[in-house]
Every structure is written in structure tokens, then in C-alpha cells.
Design brief:
With 271 residues, the chain is α/β, with parallel strands linked by helices. It has one domain: NAD(P)-binding Rossmann-like Domain (Rossmann fold, 3-Layer(aba) Sandwich). It has 6 helices and 14 strands. Strand 6 and strand 7 form a beta hairpin. Helix 2 crosses helix 4 and helix 2 crosses helix 6. The longest helix has 19 residues. The chain is globular. The two termini are 30 Å apart. Its EC number is 5.1.3.2. It is an enzyme of class 5 (isomerase).
């Protein structure tokens, strides 16, 4: 890039650079580097390299977009996530269960220490989740049969529609043209949802019952993480506008119209 005098860069970073949150919602001045996964460590390492690059040569203009959890698909259903194997991301996995391609959704952990006073419901009341099937220890229960007031403590995540995410990139490109220097922005909605809330929203979008089972929590998963996106709003003039229902509707449309992904039928230049 230096050889061709290209000194403008938008870097796709991640909220995983923050590690375990010291406070919520996360702002861009939250301490970095206490990453809980190799993926987060690579993003933090890349941001550190870019910071060093800018300090060595201030003619560089760099914007790092710290994605929260990108989901959804293009509303046309022409562009979506095409996994080469079993999906590793939550939303495509839930869609495959709704489509009958997988038997159930794995919910990793129900023992998260979710804090009070954050403005979102961290404890999901079981008797509100009637019609969802829960598999625990190879036994199947209807949640309506669970004791009234029983609760699951589930991890909370901030999900952002990929169309909103794409528009954030356009806003970042405009920022680069203003000789912005080195910048970083949270790209999220500022709202957190549990896995069960995602399942319920996908049931609404698809009209399908989506079974799930509770598994052991995964190493490196934090209890709750969601953005304060106000800096992106004030400086990039960007704001996420698609809600959870829209994310699920577009993801389900992609799944329904492309049950096997692109399946080799997508041609270059086809749009």
C-alpha cells in the first residue's frame, strides 16, 4: 500500500478486543487486550499494529470498526452466509434447525452471572417461553411443564444487521477522506439479547418451532457484552436501524430460498 501511496484503511475489527467487560455498555475507551479467545487476540494484535503504523507515519488514515455480532442477510436473499460446513455462527444454525436440517440448537450455558441495573432482562422467565422444546440430559421437556418462575441465566449479546454494518463501512470511507487519523468505533445496536430471545424471534419469522438443548458453557464466553454506539452516531453519522425481527426475517428468507447456500449457481457479475 505504501508503494502505491494508498494510506487509507478500514479495518474489520471486533468487540472481542475488549475481553471481559469492566462496565456496560462498552465504549471505545474501555481497556483493550484482555481477550478471552484466539480470535479476539488476533483482532487486538492487528489494531495494535495499525496504531504503531499510524504513530510511525501520521499520513495514514485508519478506521477500525469493532463489530459486535453481525447477523441477517440482504433483503433480496441474493447475498447471505454460505457456510462450507455446519454453521459456526448462531443465526445460521438456528435457521438450519428451523428448516429441519439440524435437530436442535445448542445453548451453551445457563449459569451466567448477568448483572442487574443494565436496562435489559438478563433472566429469562421459563413460563414465558411456552412452545419451545428444551432438551436437557437427553430428555425432552415442554417449557410449559417447567415450574412457574423458573429462570435461566443466559449470556447476552449485541446483534447488528449486515446491511447496517455495510452502511457503517460507507460512513467510515467518508471519514477517511476527512484526514481523520486513527479512529475506532463500536458497530452495534446498543441492545442485548439472549440466545433464547433470538430463538423466539426466529420462530416468529419462520413460523416454525425450534427445539434447543442446554450444554456446558464454552470457555471464553463472557456473560454479557453490548455496545455504546453513540460515538459512531456522532462522528460517522451512523446508526443501526434494523431491529431483531428484521434480522431474523431476512436471515430466514435467505435460508428458505437458498437451502443449500449458493450451491454453485452464483455467477460472477450476477447481481
Amino acid at each position: 500500500m505504501n508503494a502505491h501511496s494508498v494510506k487509507k484503511l478500514v479495518f474489520s475489527s471486533s468487540c472481542t478486543v475488549y475481553g471481559v467487560p469492566q462496565f456496560l455498555p462498552l465504549t471505545e475507551n474501555h481497556p483493550l487486550g484482555q481477550c478471552t479467545s484466539p480470535y479476539g487476540a488476533t483482532k487486538y494484535f492487528a489494531e495494535t499494529l495499525l496504531k504503531d503504523l499510524h504513530e510511525a507515519d501520521t499520513s495514514w488514515n485508519i478506521v477500525s470498526l469493532r463489530y459486535f455480532n453481525p447477523v441477517g442477510a440482504h433483503p433480496s436473499a441474493r447475498i447471505g452466509e454460505d457456510s462450507s460446513g455446519p454453521p459456526s455462527n448462531l443465526m445460521p444454525h438456528i435457521c438450519q434447525v428451523a428448516a429441519g436440517l439440524s435437530p436442535y440448537v445448542n445453548v451453551y450455558g445457563n449459569d451466567y452471572d448477568t448483572p442487574d441495573g443494565t436496562g435489559i432482562v438478563f433472566l429469562v422467565t421459563i413460563n414465558r417461553l411456552i412452545q419451545v422444546t428444551c432438551f436437557v440430559s437427553d430428555r425432552s421437556y415442554f417449557l410449559s411443564n417447567m415450574p412457574t418462575g423458573s429462570k435461566l441465566c443466559l449470556c447476552i449479546r449485541d446483534y447488528v444487521h449486515i446491511v447496517d454494518l455495510s452502511k457503517a463501512h460507507v460512513s467510515a470511507l467518508r471519514m477517511l477522506n476527512n484526514n481523520c487519523g486513527l479512529k475506532a468505533y463500536n458497530i452495534g445496536t446498543g441492545k442485548g439479547y439472549s440466545v433464547l430471545e433470538i430463538i423466539r424471534a426466529m420462530e416468529k419469522a419462520s413460523g416454525k418451532r425450534i427445539p434447543y438443548r442446554i450444554c456446558a458453557r464454552r470457555r471464553g464466553d463472557t456473560d454479557a457484552i453490548y455496545a455504546d454506539p453513540s460515538l459512531a452516531f456522532h462522528e460517522l453519522r451512523w446508526k443501526a436501524v434494523h431491529d431483531l425481527d428484521k434480522m431474523c426475517e431476512d436471515q430466514w428468507r435467505w435460508q428458505r430460498l437458498n437451502p443449500h447456500g449458493y450451491d454453485g449457481d452464483f455467477e460472477a457479475g450476477d447481481h
